[in-house]
Structure formats: C-alpha cells, structure tokens
Amino acid sequence: MADTMAELMTSNLNLVFGERDPAARRAVVDRIYTEDVTFADAEGVLTGRDALHQKAQDLLDAAPDFVFTEAGPVYQAQDLGCLAWNFGPAGQPPVVSGMDIAIVENGRIASLHTVLTTS
Length: 119
What we know:
The chain is α+β, with helices and mostly antiparallel strands. The chain is built from three helices and seven strands. A hairpin with a 2-residue loop joins strand 6 (96-105) and strand 7.
C-alpha cells in the first residue's frame, strides 16, 4: 500500500533526515523517494537517492546532538506536501527552523525542497 502524503512527509523528516542509523535510513530512502529524486536547498540541487542519503548523513554528522521535530501538521494540495520543522539540541529551543516541500509522483517523493525560515 502506498504511503499517504502525511506518512511520506513525516518519514522524510524523521526516518531519513532524523535517522542516524545509515542502514535504517537507506531502507526508507529506497521506499519513499523516486530513483531520480531531486533535493534542493540553499546549498544547491542534488539528484538521486544516493545523493539524498549522503546529504542526510552529512547534516547529521555536522550536528551530532541535534534532533528534528515537527513544527505543525502536514499540509497537502494535490501532489504537493509541506511540513514545517525545527532542528536543535533535544529539549532546547531550536537553532534553525524550516519547511520541507515535496512533489509526489506515483506514491513517492520525486522532488524535495528545503526552505529555512530561521537561521
């Protein structure tokens, strides 16, 4: 069964970008993204599951004590999903906030954009 938009967006945040175990993360990457997924943020654009997986690893390596938390519900319009988030040390105010915006094709995230709302 295909994931709902809410499941895709929360899995992207918590089970990919928030997952520190590379093998567990990779299983989710292969399940929820298209093979040629594009990821865009202020640093540039990446293409493919391998690049996205490495992006998540690099982010987590750079912030070993930080965790992602959802900062509201998942919003959906047709094939577009949006989820706001916070990132910072567990139990403390966030260091950065942002949102993920995804386009879904055939039940998988095909395009993901991360927008920082604070830094």
